[in-house]
Design a protein that fits this description.
The protein is of the alpha/beta class and about 220 residues long. The protein is built from 7 helices and 9 strands, in the order αβαβαβαβαββαβββα.
Length: about 220
């Protein structure tokens, strides 16, 4: 799990809670960007639980999760760990069976691998949105209803017309107002999710009051 979120413990708990629902026994490695110093998680926590890319680059993994990050308003190349992140994404092609990219991580992955641009929104996309399945039966959506909710919390978006230019990409779910929400490659090696299926029941509430306390429009 490449955890790019500022309060890492919250994201760790959300993702591990989801992974614990599988009957498979899972061994998780947490990865940090050595080119970035986290300001919202203690150095002792990072040192104890996280590894750098140099420490794991010779390993192979069944799966990888690349989380979102609060850097949406910046151009990708302006993010101080962009070069290191693209190195990890290239490495994942040969060392990881399948990678899930979440929120900004999805936009970054689509941009790096396919040149898909992101677009700024007039106001923050925030709330719980219903999504419609865009394909027939697919293993990734087994057990999902035809309409299902996904929390969204972002300032940028991607467009369907940029996705369908690439024959290798499949849109699994979308919302008519906010566009594609789950995309995958035909070989299932990469999954891109613009929202946050991993969020807890009160995560949006916490983000809402955080922004209100800062005097931000939300």
């Amino acid at each position: 799990i490449l955890n790019l979120m500022p309060i890492k413990q919250d994201t760790e708990l959300q993702l591990l809670r989801g992974l614990s629902n599988t009957p498979l026994q899972i061994d998780v490695t947490f990865l940090q960007m050595s080119s970035h110093v986290s300001k919202n998680t203690s150095a002792s926590h990072i040192k104890k639980f996280y590894q750098t890319f140099d420490e794991i680059k010779h390993n192979n993994y069944d799966g990888m999760i690349i989380t979102g990050a609060p850097v949406e308003k910046m151009e990708f190349e302006e993010v101080n760990y962009w070069d290191e992140l693209t190195t990890v994404m290239e490495w994942s092609k040969k060392h990881v069976t399948s990678t899930i990219h979440i929120c900004w991580g999805a936009q970054a992955g689509l941009y790096h691998h396919y040149g898909v641009p992101k677009y700024g929104l007039d106001q923050k996309l925030f709330g719980i949105y219903k999504n419609k399945r865009s394909t027939g039966p697919d293993p990734l959506l087994r057990g999902f209803d035809d309409l299902f909710p996904i929390p969204q919390s972002r300032h940028t978006t991607i467009k369907k017309e940029d996705i369908i230019k690439h024959d290798d990409l499949v849109i699994l779910a979308e919302n008519k107002d906010i566009g594609p929400t789950i995309i995958k490659t035909k070989d299932n090696r990469a999954i891109f999710m613009t929202g946050h299926l991993e969020y807890d029941s009160e995560t949006l509430k916490t983000e809402y009051f955080r922004d209100v306390d800062k005097g931000l429009e939300i």
